[in-house]
Amino acid sequence: MSRKQKKMLLRIVVSAVLLAAAVLIPYQGGWRFLLFFPAYFVIGWDVLWKAAKNIAHGQIFDENFLMALATVGAFCTGFFGEGEYPEAVFVMLFYQVGELFQSYAVGKSRKSISELMDIRPDYANIQRDGQLVQVDPEEVAVGDFIVIKAGERVPLDGVVTEGASSLNTAALTGESLPREVKPGDAVISGCVNQTGLLQVRVTKPFGESTVSKILDLVENSSSKKARAENFITKFARYYTPVVVIGAVLLAVLPPLFTGDWAVWLNRALTFLVVSCPCALVVSVPLSFFGGIGGASRGGVLIKGANYLEILSQTEIVVFDKTGTLTQGVFRVTAVHPDDCTEEELLETAALAESYSDHPISRSLKEAFGKEIDASRVTDAKELSGRGIRAVVDSRTICAGNEKLMEEMGISCHPCRSIGTVVHVAADGKYLGHIIISDELKPDAGETVSGLRAQGVKKLVMLTGDRKEVGEAVAVELGLDQVYTELLPADKVEQVERLLQEKSPKGKLAFVGDGINDAPVLSRADIGIAMGGLGSDAAIEAADLVLMDDKPSKIAEAMKISKGTLRIVRQNIWFALGVKLLVLILSAFGLSTMWEAVFADVGVLILAVLNASRALRLGK
User: Fold this and answer.
1) 136 is catalytic
2) Which has the closest alpha carbon to 44: 99, 117, 93?
């Protein structure tokens, strides 16, 4: 419990003791007022101050104004009869109990998420003047060497230069399986070094590190409100002045005919207490906050409540193939030379691809298996969606798909093998082709079944691969449609067309790697990216990031989103239903201030308790 919460608890206890003493002392008239006023002032002075301050700033209609008006009015009824002093104090006392409970629940939710995302490093070990010293991570520059001991958190992104160890990535991915690293491997901030001593060369400043981006994403997620949150905000803006006007009319019009001013004033005050929209204003944002936290626990980062809401309405899911449904780890499985040897064909392709970091290029260089002399390569140019053109040993080499060969006017041989085909030509002469295969991710099948279980109506795959390769993957996974041999612009066109097929309330999600698919990610209703343990491009481009590259997490996130929306709807209908019922009863004098207290603070407590369930959705 925070210091502020402890102070509020002390005020509640003191006020409750003063209230009990005032009730037991049998004084009437002015003395009775003096007995109850200290109890009221101790517990309600801050509400009165906030109401007065907000009125001075032109913000009249809020819960502070309603509570101040209702309780001060209850005291004022003493001028018309015996007064409602105990009720006025108890209403304010119970209201503050509700506020304390709300503060504690929200604080606990934030603490839970803070603990979940407690990945910000406190220090970095750096060598200075032959000594290992601890400095703030923000003081470390790119190119510096840091040392990470066993049990310490990785403070900055970098590359291992010495040592080998296991890294605990649970805070980022939700997975307990450690990740083994050795010299040459990249490490990202936020992981915990479990075993060995590591020396790491820093590649990014702290402000651009993975941990910094993730913390910023989670902290700012509340700024993007869902429709339900915007509805509640607008609702409260119009609802509060309407009920105040209704209470005034209730206090003034009937007594003009009956003459019972004290009775109708009491009913109007009860009406005001009931009408406070606290339960809705507090519980709805808290539910979304909990849902986002629950998803974060499972390694799914959601950039805002609006995306959590959209995810629950998704009807069509469109996948990129490579790196999304497949592992993106390519291997050369066949070499088919036409006018050269296998080794010459591999060497030519590897040299042409030497400047590219594309997975296909890496697989060709690995298959060649020898050190590449980059001085033999000039004028290398990557042709989007087609391949590579480069000058190797004064020969113009083209390595890519059939579209590139057609563009260059080169006749190539079709291949029936399943896999990505890289055709190679030199100075317009066809040299042969190389087959590169990719493997499905272990959870690709689980992804499809999980999404169908969540009510997704259509699963589509878009790929730049050959028709045979794309259709083989689609058949194996049981997808509804597949579109092959697409350029990046073609993928956008296909998504545009699929957007026309969904229902008016339905949404389309696109799942890609967040780098090559940025245009499609931004065009879809919700873009989902493979985070690759913190890929910068993925975090920037997408609305939802899977930190461990497991597409099956999409179905889990969708389940969390639907659970969150269900809790939000429960709170809205419960709060409105109870308030409407008690409002009607209070207008006809069938409810007292005690029922009004339940309709306000009681509903608030129950709604907050229900909202806190959203935090457990990710477990």
Assistant:
1) no
2) 93
Q: Are 597 and 273 in contact (CB under 8 A)?
A: yes
Residue spans of the domains in the chain: they are 3-115+222-288+563-616, 124-155+157-203, 300-327+441-547, 331-437
| pLDDT tens track for 466-488 | 788 888 889 989 999 999 888 77
Give the other-Cβ count within 10 Å of 4's Cβ. Answer: 11
What is the homologous superfamily of the domain 300-327+441-547 according to CATH? HAD superfamily/HAD-like (3.40.50.1000)
Find the catalytic residue in 62, 320, 513, 549.
320
CB-based contact 299:553 (threshold 8 Å): yes
Task: State the CB neighbour count (10 A cutoff) for residue 239.
Answer: 17
Q: Which positions ≥6 away from 571 have C-beta within 8 Å?
A: 279, 280, 283, 284, 287, 607, 610, 611
Instruction: Spell out where 401-501 has E strands.
Output: 420-426, 429-437, 458-462, 481-483
Q: Which residues of 366-385 are buried (b: 16+ CB within 10 A; e: fewer)?
A: ebbeeeeeeeebeebebbeb
Tell me the two tokens of residue 412.
Answer: 């190539």
pLDDT in tens, 124-160: 999 887 788 999 888 899 999 999 998 898 999 999 9
CA angle 99–101–102, rounded 5-degree value: 60
CATH of domain 331-437: 3.40.1110.10
Q: Please state whether beta strands 458-462 and 481-483 pair in parallel, antiparallel, or not at all (unpaired).
A: parallel
Per the document, the length of the chain is 619
Nearest to 537 by CA among 118, 210, 183: 210
Domain 124-155+157-203 has what CATH class?
Answer: mainly beta
Please say whether the beta carbons of 548 and 169 come within 8 A: yes
Helix (H, G, I), strand (E, B) or coil at 423: strand
This model's pTM is above 0.90:
no
Residue 582 pLDDT class (50, 70, 90 cuts):
confident
Contact 364, 334 (CB under 8 A): no
Strand stretches in 451-499, DSSP E: 458-462, 481-483
